[in-house]
């Protein structure tokens, strides 16, 4: 792990000051975070990206992989409404797939909790980041996970299948495999077919190893049998969902294309109305929406708690670098961490060290 330079720390301080001027309250959180919360949110996948340690008294802990989750926890335990927060500090990510990238770096963020006008809040965060990063000449990208979620919710299939697809929206290859299986495009693996045919699937299973009980395993097998009886997704539904996933245009043209698709997939109409309001809000903030890119699939591989608007800023000609900034809406996260309470929320983070690399440090 490398130590962030004085230039990077100065850039982080500059961004903090900018966000404070925008009305944000500065907050902080511990470098060690309880692993249980993050595992509950992300599943075991998080272990491949985070540094995990065991504390004798506190149990399993993780070096802080980001600030958003602890900031949401802090707000949901008694934050005022509306609220804006900013923070800066080290986060830690394992980089086995990209060993050239830093595994310790400074993250500066801005988060908005405001239920009055979520679309205006989306535009506020994006425009603030756009201004903060303008000297670097970065390429902005946007998307909307909420449109994909609405499309999945509108599929004419069982609640179990919709839940499975929803769970894997952020894992495109797994999502595609499930979609093909539910549409009858891919054959059932021979091992699963044999399992479903067996009168007593556990008869010759041998000793039980692992955490699942025989009852839990039997329930899972029964669920698979019920799923096998569901009728396949129609080709028309799959084609409409594929058409949504393929949309890649500037914002106004993307909205027009998605409106056409909504004729066959009306479940996305509400999400498209929100998209239209966001475009108007961005335009009022001075963003050139006619040239702002929108990609329906954007954010599916790296933004697991976002459930609406998503965005990123990239250095053109530097595919070796991660995005300089990312962000989006995460209303569902506030429900997960709010013990029954919830509030619309949107925010984003900037990697201050990349600004130094790109020659933009002050």
TrEMBL record:
Residues 12-198, 221-347 form the Class II Histidinyl-tRNA synthetase (HisRS)-like catalytic core domain. One of its GO terms (molecular function) is histidine-tRNA ligase activity. Pfam families: tRNA-synt_His. Keywords: Glycosyltransferase, Transferase. Signal peptide: none annotated. L-histidine binds at residues 66-68, 93, 107, 111, 300, 305-306. GO terms for biological process: histidyl-tRNA aminoacylation. GO terms for cellular component: cytoplasm. InterPro entries: aa-tRNA-synth_II/BPL/LPL (IPR045864), HisRS-like_core (IPR041715), HisRS/HisZ (IPR004516). It comes from the Bacteria. NCBIfam families: PRK12295.1-5. This is ATP phosphoribosyltransferase regulatory subunit. The lineage of its organism: Bacteria, Pseudomonadati, Pseudomonadota, Alphaproteobacteria, Rhodobacterales.
